[in-house]
Write a structure and sequence with these properties.
about 230 residues, alpha+beta, de novo design (two linked rop proteins), 2 domains, three-stranded antiparallel sheet, 6 strands, binds zinc ion
């Protein structure tokens, strides 16, 4: 149900600071015919880092956009998606590798909403996938082995190390992933494959993803150096 929170921006309002972007609050709601009215709000998790760190906030925007696109307000059971969102915002505040948090979230969300990519078997010929470079098909939703590559359209190369990390992310709980060290080139490749697939599924560009990328580009040591030398 869509809600309105009247006066949430007024400094004197009891709801000020409790109904904000990227916060978890408990609300007392009067149900209307079409809209709910939040009459009381109590802050549960402020997720401070998402407000203070531009990059982490940008990732949170991407995460929220995906949840919105992959679900409908009338969906029966969104508890698992809600728990995933809650856990992801906590991890985005706490974990060193925010990009890894986002990739893990994306694979879990795809699974919860029925778009789990097949990473164990070739989606065209059913062969088991062995440790070598493969291909990925957006349309068929998974890995295509080198023998079947060329059958069907729209297949992209999928390097073996990228597939290995994707499989690990898909099958493992976060606690087993948090110590994983992913080099930047591998991160870029993971992002290319997963964002490509998600964009194909949703049939639209991801604004939050575009913004998070721009922030990362601005903040990369290379560009920070450039900006500094330009200022001096
Ligand atoms: Zn095959």
């Amino acid at each position: 149900m869509d809600l309105i929170a009247k006066g949430a921006r007024r400094p004197s309002s009891a709801k000020t600071g409790h109904v904000e972007l990227f916060t978890r609050s408990e609300l007392l709601v009067h149900r209307g015919r079409e809209l709910g009215l939040a009459v009381q709000a109590e802050l549960r998790k402020p997720w401070q880092a998402l407000h203070e760190d531009l990059q982490r906030g940008a990732w949170a925007g991407h995460v929220a956009e995906l949840v919105e696109r992959f679900t409908n307000p009338g969906d029966d059971d969104l508890a698992a998606v809600f728990d995933l969102l809650d856990a992801t915002f906590c991890r985005l505040c706490e974990e060193a590798d925010a990009r890894l948090v986002v990739r893990h979230f994306e694979l879990k969300l795809l699974e919860e909403t029925g778009f789990r990519p097949e990473l164990q078997q070739c989606v065209l010929g059913d062969e088991g996938i062995i440790a070598e470079d493969q291909f990925f098909s957006h349309a068929a939703g998974g890995v295509v082995c080198p023998q079947c590559a060329g059958r069907g359209l729209g297949q992209l190369p999928l390097a073996e190390p990228t597939l290995r990390v994707m499989r690990h992310l898909q099958r493992s709980p976060w606690v087993q992933l948090r110590s994983l060290r992913v080099p930047e080139t591998l991160h870029n490749d993971l992002e290319r494959v997963l964002t490509g697939y998600i964009t194909w599924v949703l049939e639209r560009r991801l604004q939050g993803m575009d913004f998070a990328r721009r922030v990362r580009h601005l903040r990369s040591p290379h560009n920070l150096g450039k900006n500094r030398s330009r200022q001096s």
